[in-house]
Design brief:
This protein is of the alpha+beta class and 126 residues long. It has a single domain, classed as Dynein light chain 2a, cytoplasmic (Beta-Lactamase, 2-Layer Sandwich). 40% of the residues lie in helices and 25% in strands. The chain has 4 helices and 5 strands; from the N terminus they run αββααβββα. Strands 2-1-5-4-3 form a 5-stranded antiparallel beta sheet, with helices on both faces. Helix 1 packs antiparallel against helix 4. The protein starts with a helix and ends with a helix.
């Protein structure tokens, strides 16, 4: 029950992020690469097929979870970002729960502004 309540809260936060004009996708991905909350902005056509998206999700989950080699000296990863021709992809790991927030935005999006917006929206999530 607590888990489903938490997922509902995450879904609400993702929908709130989707309200930002440059954000195309905001979703919570579990350690198995499954989408557990959020998704694409309503009415938006994804750039990729569902199967390709799942592979990308798995890759982001893997990259975010294995990069701990510098945590002691530099601190944990706050987010990972990739700027591509058609989109900006940003992942925010939630290490305690082993999930991450994945955002896809328009290529013109400012990554730092996106990160600030995510922190603002997700600060109240417990």
């Amino acid at each position: 029950m607590v888990e489903s309540t938490q997922f509902k809260l995450y879904d609400e936060k993702c929908i709130q992020l989707q309200g930002e004009s440059e954000i195309r996708f905001a979703g919570i991905i579990d350690k198995d690469g499954e989408l557990i909350a959020g998704g694409f902005k309503e009415g938006l056509i994804p750039h990729e097929s569902d199967e390709t998206r799942l592979k990308s999700f798995l890759e982001f989950v893997s990259n975010a979870s294995i990069r701990t080699e510098y945590d002691e000296s530099l601190g944990p990863i706050n987010y990972l970002a990739a700027r591509r021709d058609k989109a900006v992809l940003v992942s925010f790991p939630f290490p305690v729960t082993q999930i991450l927030l994945l955002i896809s935005a328009e290529p013109s999006a400012n990554i730092e502004n996106l990160a600030k917006k995510v922190v603002e929206i997700f600060t109240d999530v417990k």
